[in-house]
Amino acid sequence: MSAVPHHVAIVMDGNGRWASRRFLPRIAGHRQGVESLRRCVRLCVERGIAVLTVFAFSSENWNRPAEEVSGLMELLAKALAREVPQLHADGVRLHFAGERRGLSDKVRRGLDEAERATAGNQRLVLNVCFNYGGRWDIAQAAQALAERGEPITEEALNRAMALAHVPDPDLLIRTGGEQRISNFLLWQAAYSELFFSDRLWPDFDAAALDEALACFARRERRFGQTSAQVAAALAPPPARAATAAALASQV
Questions:
Q1: What is the pTM of this model?
Q2: Which residue in 132, 141, 212, 239 has its CB near the most CB atoms, within 10 A?
Q3: Mind listing the pLDDT tens digit for each residue in 115-152?
Q4: Where in the chain is the domain with CATH 3.40.1180.10?
């Protein structure tokens, strides 16, 4: 088993508090958060992570002050125009997950164009969850199956989820000191390793990411099995056979 997670998901929390501590408007923290995301994408590529999924705007964030929501929408539009060419040059494939019907035509066009422009890239998949909620994701998947007349099974739901194009996250990181996942990837994170960082998102740097990766490397991922079964599966073939025989003798 590789010590490097294939898929990392991040709740990018703390932008507003970062700004408030510097007596800046909250939108300044979100701008700095974009810089932190740019840095994180580069670090993930360097460390061999194949998929990065970030929580950029939740379906509950509409309840924030109108000025902040408007600023976030404008920031997204500007970030798309500025960042997509470089992401494309770096081999990053962009995918946006979330309900698009509540977004402006300008923002929807920007999301569509970014996905089309980067569709052939394979160095890193960057999933941006925007106007997204884990409950919404499960509900929309169930609705899609019902409309097609398909039985609602775990396998069918998994294929209908917003992130069906990538494996489930191995590691889920939340910055900002809170220890909850806040309606993020409720289905996909069933067996994700969780890591909570006190760093505010704009301060989440290479050292903070490496701390999370080091913690992940020390975890034993059993997926319902025992430690002995995991060890047997990871052992070289001769040792694996001996371990399997020993386990069988204990039954």
A1: 0.87
A2: 132
A3: 999 999 999 999 999 999 999 999 999 999 999 999 99
A4: 7-219
